[in-house]
Amino acid sequence: MGSILEISAIRRHSLPAALRRTLVRRRSRPESQRLRPCSGDSDDRCCRMVRHLAFSSSRACPAAWPGHMRHHAADATAAVRRRQAKEEAAVSLRVRLALPLLLLGLVLCGCSDVKQINRITFVTALGIDKSEVGVKVHAVIAVAGRFAALSSGGAPTGSRSPNYILTEEAHDISEALFKMKRRNSRDIQFGHMKIILFSDELARSGLNEYLDLFLRRSEFQSIAWLALTRGSTRNVLETSPQIPESPSDLFVDVFSQAGSDTMEVLPMLLYQFYSLSQEPDKSPYAMFVENIKGGNRIDLADLGVFRGDKLVGSLKPLETMYLQLLQNNKLQPTLLTTRNAALAVDRFKTHIDVSKQQITIRLKLDASVDENDGSLLHNPEDVYKLQDELNAKLATDISALIAKLQKLHSDPVGFGGMYRQQAADKQLDMDEWTDVIFPEMSVKTEIDAKIVRRGNVE
What we know:
With 458 residues, this protein is α/β, with parallel strands linked by helices. The protein folds into two domains: 119-147 and 162-315; 317-457, GMP Synthetase, Chain A, domain 3 (2-Layer Sandwich). 39% of the residues lie in helices and 24% in strands. α2 runs parallel beside α3 (67-109). It is found in: Membrane. It is a lipid-anchor.
């Protein structure tokens, strides 16, 4: 196998430094004091040194070592690797056990600030009026316990309503809500607020300064509905409808058209109103809601139209329906009436061209006779006569609607966006469009209404 002196023939850089120093010291001894060659299975000092160096050094044993040294070094290296593998497995196991415990701790910490539902006040609707100080804010509070009784099939005790109203007056909305929270015994949450009402007096002065708060704070939903009232908003919020039990739920049913669907109702969300008030493409609008005498009915009558963020006028329900036809909105159940007949709209399609001087409206519409007070329309001449009457009525009413909007300097149809695209005026200013260009444009209507069903039994 060779003696220990054979290692001197190996290049110094191929051995660990500690082994080189040991070999140098041993070579300097007299021949009688030097170690004899060790056998492959011996466990003398040299072999123990090789094992120790194999454990303590990260360098691999050179292939030029004597055979017995390479054998011990290989065994030692394998032992080191086995020990390292066990240590790594133990560490990995500890990490796998500690990670779920850490995540469990984080989850449990999320419940440290929990609040019972009977200690939270939920605001479902807000009403904002103008006052001498600034604004007066009315908040509809939902009483969770009373709603729980209703949802389980019970009835409210006596005449107790499931809602009550808090009112505060302050310089601005933020201060009023702060006072409301300070004077209330429970935490007020606005995450369930579904509608915001503004009085017409406030809307005429401009709404954007009041909408800023609702768009900044994360506790408010920007998808809440926006509506108007004539007079104080509290009169509407005090309504006690029979179905559903809360006025805010009634507004959601009507505005989302989940309960009743009609093209005479054109709702608008909070963020939509704010966005449209900042651009010339289209003017915002909002529905007027009224409390019918008796206190248990809410009527959605007119549609308020705006120039920017200021209320400038309103449209009747029939005009609102025509506005939806011009906007190409989704068809809802709609009736068109002539002198002797009522016709249901089956389908429609509107195409609008806007040049620099003229607005051209092309409306194609299919209708069915829903009720007829005259003849039974057996003759084609009677059908054509009714079609001509319907075409003339639509052309007259739509032209009158656009003339009214031009007079109000309001563009809820969206002619401004079409003008920018088709007339290539990319730098269109809102004031220039609503005050100068739009009011002076001529309007041409082309109506193609057809009666596809007469309702006769052949």
